[in-house]
Structure formats: structure tokens, C-alpha cells
Design goal:
This protein is α+β, with helices and mostly antiparallel strands. It contains 2 helices and 11 strands, in the order H-H-E-E-E-E-E-E-E-E-E-E-E. It has an 11-stranded antiparallel β-sheet. The radius of gyration is 23 Å and the shape is globular. The N and C termini lie far apart (about 80 Å).
Length: about 210
């Protein structure tokens, strides 16, 4: 009886060790990526259906939101939770349409500006907003990154224009989850971009 109990305990212990290793491996795989997967995460293919929310620019009140669905995109600027500017680009039935909302300058925004209006000037297709190309501006060379096993993120410390910056990247299922940029020289400078609603993002504009 004692031998059977020992065998059962050993078997159960082995199973638990294997189970924990499997769970840990799955967790690592969800947050770690290869160089090829890293490069792909910044492409239009991966960012063709996503919502991106951004805070920073040395002003805690300013927020941005970007929604990309295929070739269509919408960009919104907020001060606290008040939208004061927006742009919307759409291709529908082969026809391009562009719309603007409010004023780019929050100080000039009035309630009378709080509507979407069609723009007679087409947006530049080379714009960084098309296909979320602006996200690639925050990509650091993969070989410079280190992986933090505790925080489950990649990071790199670089110097730009004489100032030190810390770039931190979080990934989930081979996709960007969050990018954080901070400066040890200026604690008021930071930029946080969060990526979500992959594959389910929609654009809702009252036109």
C-alpha cells in the first residue's frame, strides 16, 4: 500500500511539474517574439484593424485615438475627454472621402465646431496616418532590445539629441500591446500607446 502511495505521489508531482512548465511556456510564447515577428508587428498587415490610444506630449490632458479598418482610418484629438479635432478618411465603392472635425488648436475650438464636415482637400496618401505608418516611427532595432522576464516586456535605452530615452514594448500573441517611451532627464516627458481591439475595431462617425 505504501509503495502504491509513493508511486501515486511521484506521478502526481511529475504531472504538476509538467503542467506548470507547459503553462509557463505558453505565457512566454504569448509575450516573447522573434525578430521576424517583431518586424511584422509594425506592418500595415498587422495594424490593418486596430485601435490605438495615446497619452503624452508633456501634457497629461491631451489624448489621441486612432482607428484603422483596412484602408479607412479615423484620428481623434481630446483634451481630457472632450474631442476637439478629428479626421476621417474613407474609401467606399471605389470613391475616396475625407472629413474633418473641430479645430487642430484646442484654444480655437468652440461648440459650433463640434461637427464633421467634408473636406475639399484630399488627405495626402503618403501621410503617416495611412495604414498606421506612424507606429513604425517608434520601432527600435531588434538587436538593441533586452527582454525583462519579470515584467514580460522588451526594452532599450537609447540617446537621441543628447537625451536618454527608455523604450518599452509589450507584446501579446505576436501583436503590439503597448509602447512606452520615457525620459530619465525629464520626468514630465512620456508617451504611452496602447493597442487593442485587433480584428474587431470599427469606425463610428456621425456625418
Amino acid at each position: 500500500m505504501g509503495n502504491i502511495r509513493k508511486i501515486l505521489i511521484i506521478g502526481l508531482t511529475g504531472f504538476l511539474i509538467f503542467f506548470n512548465m507547459t503553462i509557463s511556456a505558453c505565457s512566454v510564447n504569448k509575450n516573447q517574439i522573434s525578430q521576424e515577428e517583431y518586424e511584422k508587428a509594425f506592418t500595415s498587415e498587422k495594424l490593418s484593424n486596430v485601435t490605438i490610444s495615446t497619452v503624452g506630449y508633456e501634457n497629461v490632458h491631451l489624448k489621441e485615438k486612432y482607428c484603422c479598418v483596412g484602408d479607412n482610418y479615423a484620428f481623434y484629438n481630446y483634451y481630457d475627454d472632450l474631442q476637439f479635432y478629428g479626421k476621417f478618411y474613407e474609401i467606399k465603392n471605389g470613391e475616396e472621402s475625407c472629413y474633418l472635425y473641430g479645430s487642430e488648436d484646442f484654444e480655437c475650438f468652440t461648440e459650433e465646431d463640434a461637427f464633421w464636415r467634408k473636406s475639399e482637400i484630399m488627405f495626402d496618401k503618403s501621410s503617416l496616418f495611412h495604414n498606421a505608418k506612424f507606429v513604425a516611427l517608434y520601432k527600435i532595432a531588434f538587436h538593441l532590445l533586452e527582454y525583462d522576464t519579470k515584467e514580460k516586456c522588451y526594452y532599450a535605452e537609447i540617446t537621441s539629441q543628447g537625451q536618454p530615452f527608455l523604450y518599452t514594448y509589450y507584446f501579446l500573441d505576436k501583436k503590439l500591446g503597448k509602447i512606452e517611451i520615457t525620459s530619465s532627464a525629464n520626468e514630465n516627458y512620456y508617451r504611452i500607446m496602447e493597442f487593442y481591439d485587433y480584428g474587431t475595431t470599427t469606425i463610428s462617425i456621425n456625418i
